[in-house]
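Exercise 7.
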Amino acid sequence: MLYQKLRDYRRAVRELSKATALEANNPQAWNYLGLCKVSMGDIREGCKAYEKAIELSSNMREAWLNLGQALKEEGRVKDAERALTKAMTTAEGQPCLAAYRLLATMRQGQGRQADAIKVLDRALGHNRPEQKVELLYLRAICYHALGYTRKAVLDYGDCMNCTPRNDEGPVGEESRMFQFLSFYQREMALFVHWNLDKKATDFCLDTELNPIFKECWCKKGPPPPEMFTSYKMQPQLPDERSRSSSSGGGGSSSSPTGGIGLAPEQVAGLTTAADTIGALLQNHHQGFLPNIRQQRAAGYAAIELGQAVRALLAERRAGRGGLWVNSEGSSGQGGCSGR
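Solution. The predicted structure, written as tokens, is:
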């Protein structure tokens, strides 16, 4: 265990292998052996060690939690869900917030943000202070990804304002990072909200965002005082009641497909094709979760590339030598139309 704490995993594995040989009925030894093997990248052998610990102590929460984490890293999402759900139910009357967080993180990584939110609602419903910052931030980015700007902004704000209990000690480095990120993410959610109705020719994140803001956002650090001398905070969202009573202005396009000029059945056909193509591009390897949103985006990109190639061939057949590529909204064009 000492070698494991020192991150000398090879030596730890040697000693723990001796321990399990001398005392094969010790679930803690098997659990630590699994931790060390997974830390070395030997996930399959690590899972076997966790399973042995669970065989010896079926209600060992740490082993179920570690097994779920390892299975998640291996990409075995269904098995990971079962293990993490088991970790929740063997918490001896106390909620295992780490299991909730891991399960929600996995679902978010799969592009299942709505399902992740349901898990996070349950976790936050226990109203416990530990991991509250992490859970709030995770729920906020899920709302953000789904376009629920108002809920995302509220969770970002709660995350920033969250303070530890007096007996809990200082907020950890990871928690502080999430609180800093909440500031930048909230500003981005508001920025996009107020620019939703702009045309692509008038909207470019790269050129419109403050350089210091972008740098601090990438570094995940606290916003420095000098940033506020040049950065203007985004306006807050209007009150729900004032929004519902107002008419026009700031709303999204009235077109059922967001103003892209396609009928709903055309969008549905393209989406089905994109999902089919995107699934074929999935990297089936440990560490790569099957993300349905990324698969759809990759499928759309493949379709667009095919359309561009077909247009180029048509240009060549017509005796024209090239094809203009539309670069509207690109950074190099400063947000303006370019070819």
